[in-house]
Amino acid sequence: MGQRLSLYIHIPYCVKRCGYCDFNTYTPKELGQSGLGKSEISSQYIDSAILEIDRASSELADTVSIGTIFFGGGTPSLMEGRDINRILSHIRQQFIVEDDCEITMEANPDSVDEENLAAFVSAGVNRFSFGLQTIAPHLLKTLDRTHNEESILKALEIAVKLGVKNLSADLIYGTPGESMEDLIKTLEFALHLPINHISAYALIVEKGTKLASQISRGEISAPDDDLMADKYLVIDSTLEKNGFQWYELSNWAKAGAQSQHNQVYWTGGNWWGIGPGAHSFLGDRRWWNIKNPISYIAALSKNESVIAESEVLSDENKRDEKIMLKIRMRSGLARSDLRASDIAVIERYINSGDIDLENWEKGAVVLTLSGRLIADRIVRDLVV
User: Fold this and answer.
1) CB 164 within 8 A of CB 121
2) Cβ neighbours for 239, distance < 8 A, ≥ 6 positions apart
3) Edge-to-edge strands of the sheet including 166-173?
4) CA–CA gap between residue 92 and residue 276 (Å, rounded)
5) What is the DSSP letter of 281?
6) Which of 70, 50, 77 is nearest to 127 (CA)?
7) What is the Cα–Cα distance from 156 to 167, expressed in whole angstroms?
8) What is the DSSP string of 60-122?
9) Nearest to residue 349, comparing CAs of 367, 322, 329?
10) Residue 251: exposed, middle, or buried by beta-carbon count in 10 A (0-12, 13-18, 19+)?
11) Is 65 exposed, middle or buried (0-12, 13-18, 19+ CB in 10 A)?
12) Inter-residue contact 51 to 43 (CB < 8 Å)
């Protein structure tokens, strides 16, 4: 009996670390290397990723079809086109790749040109997610981002010229110093781009980042939670009026343009994460790899395990995660997934207008706009 699987390919390299970033990414300086020499770093890393793909193939006894592939990072667009082609070709050799497989690559507008975008498309990439964040120069400086409006427009112009139909932009709102006018200008700019998907994430100040240190020293102010909520309402209203419908708390898409890969995460599908720090989920088992890319490459070269830790989810764990993830989606959580003790919680939020009564009567728990603003609180009341 076969199974459907998604693959996440982590590319852990960046030219520069953004001030807000706590992802498992590394600059040349952090790895003790003089530079991001594509010919050596890209090739050597992809060699190792291919070895892990072989392990995944050998461990999965059933016939496996791949429905989505996602290159995330880091900055996947720093890789050589020929190496992205190598990894996708190898996946096709080891698995059945579905004809309509969604293959996404996250891209920094500063790291792409016509040559490498054409190589990625030729390899099979059919969806790009560009990091836009904001168009306000003072906010880009706070975030340590180096792109500008011109580089974003150029990158998307090339992608359209290459025939890529699914294009997404990532926004960040709530950066210290961001005015409502800054946000509206960014939204207006994004809405004039040839994209059919927008992700908008509230800035989270993570411990250990440059931004957290700046805030603790009083150099810049911390994000304002009330203002964050107001900005979310503006984002949602503006995007909905312009043909982008929310389908997950931080994601809006035009009809048929929802991220298929991310929905695998939110709906409890199976995925295998390739690369340092990558997480995987299969059945009731979750595991995650060692984080350092040098250690990851060394372990694979010696045929050693790259798994740092793993866990088997109990029925209670799986129930809690289903609630946490599905309640974030417009399709909602099935009423049948709730226990009797959950009903009183839900009814309280129906009475406060945070859960939609009409959908509840049809058998689904769907957040209203006000409910989306307090989604974390509702989840806590259901799972704690």
Assistant:
1) yes
2) 187, 191, 198, 200, 246, 252
3) 245-248, 251-253, 197-202, 166-173, 127-133, 96-107, 64-73, 3-11, 271-274, 279-282, 285-289, 307-312
4) 22
5) E
6) 70
7) 8
8) --S-EEEEEEEEEES-GGGS-HHHHHHHHHHHHHHSEEEEEEEEEEEE-GGG--HHHHHHHHH
9) 367
10) buried
11) middle
12) no
Kindly state the tokens that stand for 212: 């957290």
Torsion 227-232-233-234 (CA) sign: positive
Using CA atoms, how far apart are residues 341 and 347, in angstroms rounded to an integer? 11
**How far apart are alpha carbons 65 and 3 in whole angstroms?**
6
Q: Burial, 361: exposed, middle or buried (Cβ in 10 Å; 0-12, 13-18, 19+)?
A: exposed
Nearest 5°: phi and psi at 103? -120, 105
Question: What is the reported pLDDT for 29?
Answer: 66
Cα–Cα distance, 86 to 322 (Å, whole number): 35
Which structural domains are found in the chain, ordered by start? 3-266 (3.20.20.70), 316-383 (no CATH)
d(CA 18, CA 221): 18
234 contacts 183 by C-beta, under 8 angstroms: yes
d(CA 245, CA 258) in angstroms, rounded, equals 9
The Cα 69–Cα 8 span in angstroms is 6
pLDDT in tens, 286-322: 999 999 998 999 999 999 999 999 999 999 999 999 9
State the Cα–Cα distance between residues 18 and 143, nearest whole angstrom: 6
Q: Which letter does DSSP use for residue 337 in this model?
A: G
- Cα(204)–Cα(118) distance, integer angstroms: 34
| Both tokens assigned to 278 | 């990558």
Q: Which residue has the tokens 């992700």?
A: 199
pLDDT, tens only, 200-233: 998 876 666 666 567 677 767 666 777 899 999 9
pTM beyond 0.90: yes
| Cis peptide upstream of residue 74 (ω within 30 degrees of 0) | yes
